[in-house]
Amino acid sequence: MRRLAGMKVNRITHFSDVVIEGLATDGGLYVPKRGFPNMEAREWLRLVDMSYPERALVLLEKCIHPSDVSALDLRTMIFKAYGSNFSSEAVAPVKHLDRNQYVQELFHGPTASFKDLALQLMPQLFAHCLPQMCNYLVLVATSGDTGSAVLDGFGGLGAGADRTGVLVFFPEEGVSETQKLQMTGHEDGNARAVGVRSDFDFCQRSVKRMFGESGLTGHLAVEYGTVLSTANSINWARLLPQVVYHSSAYLDLCRDGVITFGEPVDVCIPSGNFGNAMSAVYAKQMGVPIRKVICASNHNRVLADFFATGEYDLRGRPLTPSRSPAIDILKSSNLERFVHHVSDGDGRLVGELFTRLDARQHFRVAEPLLRRMQQEVLAGWCSEGDCLAAVQRVHAQTGYLMDPHTAVAKVVADRLQDGSCPVVLCATAHYGKFAPAVFEALRIQDIPEDPVEQLRRRSPADVSTDDGLWSSRRH
């Protein structure tokens, strides 16, 4: 592994170090030193008829050295992560939506969002890699879904739980009521959630500042024997498991006869912090025939503007709350990894650009680099009205009910995808987590204020409910 920022690295940083450290000491993010292992077609074809945990084991074994996590231990963790805690045996099933569009449902985990696909595994890796003589405080900034997934994932730890504390910061007014209750209702062990009277960017910026405050880190180390870490997607062990479900979606389409291996697909992802999109880029690097990664934003469209112009400009740009709050983000952490990827590993350039962004709230990439970015990623955005209209239209035409984030992906895919190959829409959350917006889209009146009553309000007369979600494990 190596850092993204321009600092020269004089030591080999192992996977186990990266899991625990989270953020590199120079302020950059970790990426694989030699990129991802590229698999040949015959290797992928062997995975087509495998289950999700079996696919995950094969892929992650290629990315995690056995000296860090043995094959046996990794297998045990993966089969625990993707077992009865998911309401679908397929874990991340792909369903046909309409014409050449497919939906990968990433919300069948314990907290009903795509974050579970990483955060049922990452805490186990973290506990496995914990040094013996140290405690760790895991700091997390969330725009909604990460928080509850982190609390659930770390709450399920056995060994290592007594030496690991978790502190989640979320924007008090920037998450849905269901998301808030999932976080604040969690009282197990050493994990707590804290509402902040600001937006997600403030929470994320504050967490990164804590890592750089020597007074704080020194006090924690001396007085409590405690070191800081993070479970956001800036932590490599959070991002890595997400490569699996993008790979699995392609394999499912092969298994179901939609495509033969080697034929291209596009992937459309509602994105704010760019971690989900970046994991699709890495799946492509590993050999999955993804043609374009389509990045879908809501009206906080900084990513769409960046991919259109090469200019990342936060000057005077307010964060505006939306009905898709998980992507209400202006400063996308994982964009560092993408610029590193398209610049052929130019850590100095990455360091200069993002230092400029911190200092001046603005940077622009050169035209040749912009063209390379656009070869990999398409980007667009969706208004609030178009988002709600998509929820209503798709439900009326197909009976399928999307959450607002998936609807953002649907709108952008309709605009940008040319129809020449299948496109997979990432359904990143269950619609029940955003019931008021869904009720509004479906023009259902008299919405109850209580989130539990909102869930009970759903009936076959109102919406199609065949997902079997919201088991007793959910908060």
Automatic annotation (TrEMBL):
Pathway it works in: Amino-acid biosynthesis
All residue ranges annotated as the Threonine synthase N-terminal domain in the record: 13-82
Annotated positions of the N6-(pyridoxal phosphate)lysine modification: 115
NCBIfam families linked: thrC
MF annotations from Gene Ontology: pyridoxal phosphate binding
Cofactor needs: pyridoxal 5'-phosphate
Family classification: Belongs to the threonine synthase family.
Biological processes per GO annotation: amino acid biosynthetic process
PANTHER family: THREONINE SYNTHASE-LIKE 1
Region (Disordered): 453-475
Domain of life per record: Eukaryota
Residue stretches in coiled coil: none
Organism listed in the record: Cyclopterus lumpus (Lumpsucker)
Stated name of the protein: Threonine synthase like 1
Keywords: Amino-acid biosynthesis, Pyridoxal phosphate
Annotated Gene Ontology cellular component terms: cytoplasm
